[in-house]
Structures are given as C-alpha cells and as structure tokens.
Amino acid sequence: MSARTPQILSSHDFIQRSRRSSSSFASTTTQQSETKNGYIRANTQKKKKKRIALDKIKASTSSSESSESSSSASSSNDQQKNNSNNLKKLEWFNFGPRGTMKQEVFQTRSPLHVNTPLIYSQVLSEINERNVYLKLDNCQPSGSFKLRGLGYACMKAVEIDGKRTFVSSSGGNAGLGVAYSGLKLNVKTTVVVPETTPVFIRDRLKSLKAKVIVHGKQWSEANELAMKIAKEEDAFFAHPFEGEDTWTGHATVVHEMCAQLRDAGETKPPSFVCTVCGGGGLLLGIAQGLREVGWAKTDVIVSETIGCDSLYQSIKENKLITLDAITSIAKSLGAAQVSPSAFDLTKQYKREGKSPRIHAKTVTDAEALLACKRFANDHRILVEPACGAALALAYDTEIFKSTKNDANENSCVVIEVCGGAIVDLNSFN
Length: 429
Known about the structure:
The chain is α/β, with parallel strands linked by helices. It has 15 helices and 10 strands. It is 49% helix and 11% strand. Helix 2 packs antiparallel against helix 3 and helix 13 (365-379) crosses helix 14. The longest helix is centred in the N-terminal third of the chain and has 34 residues, at 33-66.
C-alpha cells in the first residue's frame, strides 16, 4: 500500500484547529472508540476540579467584599490581585496535556519543557509505505527529551521539597537538562561528568552556570561521586533516568502525540512508537503515556546500538545484565545496566497482559551514523548517533514490516527524535 498524504488544511480550518488544540486534549471529541470514555472521564474530572477551585476563589472574594468596610482600599486591591493570580494559575494548569503532573508544582511558574512539533515525513513514509511522523524533541531548550522528565522532577524538588541545590551525573543530555533547570529555577547546580565527555559539552554546562566536575572513565563512576556529593550537601539528586517523577515528565510526549496526530487527520492510534533506550527512562515514560491516553494497542519498538545494548542483552538472557564496558560511539546511551523497572516492563505483557508490548532491536554504530547523515540530508536536522539508533530502524524497510502488530497493522508510526546535544558537524567525519 502507498502512504496516505496527510490532510491539507485551509487557513480557516487551520485557525479553528489551532484554537481547539489550545484547550484540554480531553475535551475534544475523538473517533477513537477505545479512548473516548477515557477522554470524557478526564474532561469531567478536570471540570469538577476547576469548578471547586473557582467556588473557593469566589467565596474568598465574597468574604473579602463583606469586610471591605473595615479594611483599607489598598488591602482590597491586594485581595483582588491575589484572586486574579489564582484564576490565572488555575486556567494555566488546565491548559494542554500534563499527564499526571501535580498541580501544586506549577503554582508559580510554567513547565520548563515545551510542546515540540510533530511533522509528517514524506521520505520515511514512502520508504515504509505507511504514514511516518517525527516527534521533534531535539527542539527542547536543552536539546533533548531529557528536559521533560528532569525539568519536572527539579521543579517538584524546589516547589514541594524546598531544595536549593541540584546534583546530577551525566555525559551530556541529562546534565544539560538539569543545568538548564537550575538556571531557570535559580538553583545552584553541580554536574559530574565522565572523562569521555567532550570539551564543548563541558563548556556548554558551564555556560548554564553549572559547576562541572570531571570524574571516572565511564558514567557509573561519575554517578557514584554525584550521589555522594548530593548526600553531603542535602541536595536534590537528579538521576538521569530513574524516578517516577522523571517518567511522569517524559509521559507528556505521548499526550502531545495524541493531540497532534488527531489534528493531522489520523483516526487510529499508531501501530508503533519508535524510540531508543539508554537507561530506560524515556521508555518508561512513553509506556506510562500510552496507558494514560488509552493507546492499549500501540506497541513500542526500542533501539540500542551494539555495545550499549544492556536492555537487549537482558531480554536475551532473561535477567538483568551489566555490560563489562560501553564500546559504542553512542555514549549518551551508555548505561552499563538498564533500569530494573524498564527491564520489568518488557515482561509485563507476557506476565500480566499489560500494554505496551516492547520490541527490542539493535543496530551497529555504522548504521546509526548513516541514519544521522541521511536524516540531515532528508530533513535538515542534525542529531547525535544515540538518536540515530531509532532513525536507523526507519530507514530499514524490513523493520516495521517484520515487526507485527496485528491490532494496528496499517496505522501510522511515530518516531521519537530524542535529539541530543552531543553532536556537531565534526561528529560524522
């Protein structure tokens, strides 16, 4: 079959759809029968919460008016200003998909991550004979998807736990996400990086006002020191991929996909969401997001480069495997052991029938690099080899054809372009 060309909108239709997408995704009538009830319930709950909050604000306003005669004009103005601010906060929180993020985290500021574009890829759609969409998380302010989860975790640490210091361990993307969060939240940040971290990444971390400590030959050694520093300084330790708050932040990517695919004219959930796996945080977030939006029949294809394939090897051996060394050039995938929660996720479908099904794949460094080059030529977007691991699957015409999803066999595919800042034009020489 040939890939269906996405619907082309008139300017009027585009404006109308843009207006609709600015409200809660749950209030939009969907043609997806499997998610319809979920949207209705979510919308009802949000309306109820908003009504209760509005009633409280009105009661507060009424109380203020009843005692106005005994208060000064300035006091009255302050009360009105506070009520106005409360209304703005409430309205803001109900704007757009936020997964299961806690409202109190956003009482004083908006999320640090942004809603990223989802675009139709003509080239990849023709190759795979089905509609292929690209979720461009390379457009995040920190350069990768990491800002979704780590940004939320850092905000929660400040807003709820009162932390004033962040410590992280990362050879690149996670560190940049935490450093960016620290800069925006006005929080002191320390990032411990392994010796393999390029100098230009160290300089970029410093430009975000982070203190950079170089320690160890690989990430695990840097991580041990970072945990020690965090304990000594009573700081928030922002783990690169572990933590429920981090996974919740990552889940927002699926909520965005859901709304964007509907606006693109897709009437069925995708057959697959294609992503990469390092430590497994993104995989866990995507799985959470799929459950939250009701995409029970959407599978996940997860790719690793050989030499960074701790998830693939763990699945193969049916137990958690710790790699002896990271031998791949995709250093940002360099977790010697995948998160135990991510490994367990791969078994849940067989053990308990819980979605999604996980299809683990591996590619060579050469295939990942070639995919990065082809992607730059085809889409004018530069990404690092770790991201190329997922793109390599899209350029292999047999991958999606041989990976079966009978429930959504002919529906679209979404590729998470996770981005990555550990790349420049010299990376492909």
